[in-house]
Amino acid sequence: MPLLQIAVLAVVQGITEFWPISSSAHLILTPVVFGWVDQGLAVDVAVHVGTMLAVIAYLHRDIWLVVPGVFELVRGRSSLGAQRAWHIIIGALPVIALGGVLQLSGAMTELRDPGLIGFTLLGFGVLLYLADRFGPHVLRLERMTARHALLIGLAQAVSLIPGTSRSGITITAARALGFERRESTRFSMLIALPAIAAAGILLGIEVAMSDDVMLGLDALAAGMVAFLTALVAIALMMRWLARATFTPFVVYRVVLGAGLLIWAYA
Question: Using an 8 Å Cβ cutoff, are 230 and 55 in contact?
């Protein structure tokens, strides 16, 4: 794969993964716009792993709370870390289970359709606006319950449809449940980690079995660029949400979705 294509795809992923505008939609549409051959799911997953590492670096305090919490959870002990770990597990399980079924059945590839992406970008963008505009914003993660985590996790499973936006739909669910904007975004990033890690493991197995050295090098380069870009994108968004709303992201989604529908069907 040309170095320019790898760099562009990685930058696009780094910017869009945690902004609620659908990274999967942009990864599918970017090669269409530039006339490139679709990079396939292997590179898609590699750049997702790069953004996962960016989240771990940015939310290192949360990670230091959660990792010991997993062991405390196994021992049956109660603590804030164990509670947070339990909520992340509950939130991640639906998308991991459904994603595995879709991947094994081959249905994942069939969903990479520009017309479908247009509908999901537009429709779920409007839902994000409604939840952000009219939802209460009083809860912090310390007030989260297992019910909250499960509902947000079920919403995350819907994001397997390209254009929905994993971060967008989980933030929408969290805002509708009453969580603050920055808290909603934090939990959205945290429950992404197990799913991205699982996909990364599958990629590693795929690369190892293929004996394709170039595929491995392409994936490594894409992941590194995505990591650096995502760190900057996360920091910018969190600073923005400290004083503003998700409306600019909604406007972008609606415009892009409408444009895609016109292009696909008109």
Answer: yes
d(CA 66, CA 53): 15
Please answer whether residues 259 and 33 qualify as being in contact, where contact means their C-beta atoms are separated by less than 8 angstroms.
Answer: no
Can you tell me whether residue 139 is helix, strand or coil? strand
The pLDDT > 70 percentage for the chain reads 90
pLDDT (mean) for 245-249: 96
Closest CA to 155 of 86, 88, 91, 249: 91
Inter-helix orientation angle 181-190/166-176, to 10°: 130
- Among left, alpha and beta (phi > 0; psi -120 to 50; other), residue 78 is beta
Do 28 and 164 form a contact (C-beta atoms < 8 A)?
no
Report the C-alpha gap between 151 and 162 in whole angstroms.
20
How many secondary structure helices (H) and strands (E) does the chain include?
A: 13, 0
Does residue 189 surpass a pLDDT of 80? yes
- 4-63, pLDDT tens digit by residue? 888 898 899 899 988 999 887 887 788 888 888 766 666 777 787 888 899 999 999 999
CA 260 to chain centre: 21
Half-sphere exposure of 245 (CA within 13 A, CB side): 16
Which pTM value belongs to this model? Answer: 0.90
- DSSP sequence for 19-63: TTT-HHHHHHHHHHHHTPPP-HHHHHHHHHHHHHHHHHHHTHHHH
